Protein 1
Amino acid sequence: MSAFALWRRLDTPGHDAASILPLPDGWRLHGTAVLVHDSLPARLDYELELDAGWRTRWGVVTGFLGNRQVDDTITRSARGWTFNGRHVAGLDALVDLDLAFTPATNLQQIRRLDLAVGQRAAAPAAWLAPGADTLVELPQYYRRDGELTYTYEAPTVPYQATLELAPNGFVRSYPGLWALEASSG
């Protein structure tokens, strides 16, 4: 399965384009978000490698936020998560990397959970906000309401909405934040 998506940001100017491509033993998710963050122009390129069970192995985020260069490397191993080579305590049980600036990183959680209609599950993630100097835990919950709809809740942000998926698995509608403009795969 290869899939591609282009989203338009709803709450600030911006776009994000992403793809998910198969690897022999997992998946490669990569894309670019170009948007306004805290009134500054931003371009954030991202790449994540996922194992066959949709768990994050590593991620890289590069680009800029205003005049600040971004060059972050995130890894997950048996010893836990590291951010730019530094261990991040308290996240060892988490298997997902969620990037706050793109809807693309909901894909792996939805695929990994593989919920039946009516099922609900917690999916806490290691979360990276734009410009942050470390990862934090983001409590998240997904409830599958229909074939392509999920109730999503992130209480600490706080955010709750019904996410609608495109047939390729990427989020089509992320109310108030993102809307899919084009997709394939």
Protein 2
Amino acid sequence: MLSASNIDLYYGASQALQSVSLDAKQATVSCILGRNGVGKSSLMQAITGRHPIKEGTVTWQGKDITRTSAADRARQGIAYVPQGRQIFSQLTVKENLQTGFACLPRSQRKIDDEIFDLFPVLHKMLHRRGGDLSGGQQQQLSIARALITQPKLLILDEPTEGIQPSIIKDIHNVINILRNRGEMAIILVEQYFEFARDLGDTYAVMDRGVVTLSGNISDMDEKEVRSFLTV
């Protein structure tokens, strides 16, 4: 569904990505692994159109979207759950979910019951402010908000960061459900090795702005991959 090819990305004079390529296929979880600061989030910025790239191409469902705006990519079905959640703390849970309507035609602007099947806790907290939720609940809200947009590609940037184990398990189950439905591609950016290994179909390990290892999870050399995750 998505192919990023030979991406170069800069912040001023500093190069963050060097000839990075990534494919994401329908009904699969593509895992991006690596330490902090190696370019994982920069790659997501390139894919979602939030930061311009110097070289390379991004293709979505056979169409070149390299110069397409972030808003248009969202309308075409690319949803992003950013690192750190970035919910609206002063808005209620319901209002946070409704911000996802911006990508949808008016006839489709509704919160499906399926959202609350996946995240029952949010139904109980619809009228609470986002800032009053725990970190794990905010992460669930951030994922739910992305699902409101009815995406074909869901990008999750470090969804386990700072989250309690019980909610990590809930998020694991939700990702499994979404993948097994076969309707979307999922890109999972993670440092939590076991979480990514247990969910992923393919993996790419980044270091210093390049992809150093990649392949199918079933063929992964765990010891070698872990060597790129430890400090």
